Amino acid sequence: MAPGAEAFHGEARAAFAGVARRLGLDGPGGGEGDPHLAVAAYAGSGVTYTAVLGLWQGDVEIHVCRRTALTECKVGIETLAVSAGLVDRPGHVSFDARTLRRLRRSLAGQVHYVELVHPLVSGDPDTALALMRAAGAREWRRPPAR
């Protein structure tokens, strides 16, 4: 079983601190204070990076989310980095979070990918969505605003 939500939130804050400051990301948002929700979200420039700890599976993954007026896309950080040509192949970062040490290592590697992909997904929404779609992003239409 993975470290608990409380430990996760502290580690996510530590892992994102420098990158969030450099990229102008606000956070963490998400499940802080809820012992059963291990989610930390950092947002800025139209992009949200959501770190999710699988409490039972013992894994952690950062998802990249981009919203427009009509749609929302979501893709894993490593998949996006590989598809964008920023890394040569999958497997350079860990997703293991079964121990605190493994969680730290996994978050550090994935947060590094956040820094790499941010310039590509924070600019023009159409370009960002095209890149995310090419990486196999899940996409759904947003309900019309009322």
Give the radius of gyration: 15 Å
Structural class: alpha+beta
Percent strand equals 25-35%
Could you give the count of β-strands?
A: 6
The largest pleated sheet is described as: 6 strands, antiparallel
Q: Roughly how much helix do the residues carry, as a percent range?
A: 25-40%
Which spans have pLDDT < 50 for at least 5 consecutive residues?
none
The H-and-E topology, N to C, reads as HEEEEEHHHE
Q: What report would you give on this structure?
A:
This protein has helices spanning 5-23, 77-83, 100-121, 125-134, and strands at residues 26-30, 39-44, 47-54, 59-67, 71-76, 138-141. With 146 residues, it is of the alpha+beta class. The protein has a 6-stranded antiparallel sheet. Strand 1 (26-30) and strand 2 form a beta hairpin. Helix 1 (5-23) runs parallel beside helix 3 (100-121) and helix 2 crosses helix 3. The mean pLDDT is 91.
Helix and strand layout, with pairings?
Blueprint: H1 5-23, E1 26-30, E2 39-44, E3 47-54, E4 59-67, E5 71-76, H2 77-83, H3 100-121, H4 125-134, E6 138-141
Quick structural overview:
The chain is 40% helix and 26% strand. The protein is an alpha+beta fold. The chain has a six-stranded antiparallel sheet.
